[in-house]
Amino acid sequence: MGHKKMCLDCRKTFNREFDPGSGHDYKCPDCGKSMILMPHRFRPPKRTDDKKWETVKLLVENGFKYQHIYNYKEIDGKWTSESVEYPENPKDAKEFIQKYKNQSFNI
Ligand SMILES: [Zn+2]
After folding, report:
1. 55 and 104 within one domain
2. Which of 1, 45, 75, 95 lies 20 to 30 angstroms, CA to CA, from 65?
3. Residues 7 and 55 placed together within one structural domain of the fold
């Protein structure tokens, strides 16, 4: 298991194994900016898919790096949690950010 490195500007991801010697600052080979570590299961949109990249950017900038997000609800007096799907468009992303902000990495 490793992480994906993502450059939001170039809309690229790189599948590289985690290298413990180089710290957490990975530079994009194309533009030289620091890349963002993403979980392996993150599936990057097509390079030309503006809406989906806008969605990814919005989520990442608000502390949602495609970690698991849970929806907690009470059914018959018992609390259960279910994993929540990530939104696919900016409008849903804004609602998602509001709704799950207590689970973001920003707090
Ligand atoms: Zn780049």
Report:
1. yes
2. 75
3. no
What would the pLDDT profile of 28-49 be if each residue is shown by its tens digit?
989 999 899 898 889 999 999 9
Please give the angle made by the CA atoms of 107, 24 and 104, to the nearest 5 degrees.
Answer: 20
Q: Which domain holds residue 3?
A: 1-44
Question: Cα of 35 to ligand 1 centre, how many Å?
Answer: 7
Distance (Å) from CA 24 to ligand 1 centroid:
16
CA of 71 to the centre of ligand 1 (A): 34
Q: Can you give the C-alpha Rg of the chain in angstroms?
A: 16
Report the pLDDT value the prediction gives residue 41, as an integer from 0 to 100. Answer: 86
pTM above 0.90, yes or no: no
How far apart CA 80 and CA 74 sit, in angstroms, is: 6
Using the structure block, give the residue that is written with the tokens 């018992």: 78
Residue 43, both tokens: 């599936």
Contacts of 70-74 with C-beta under 8 Å, sequence gap 24+, read 70/103
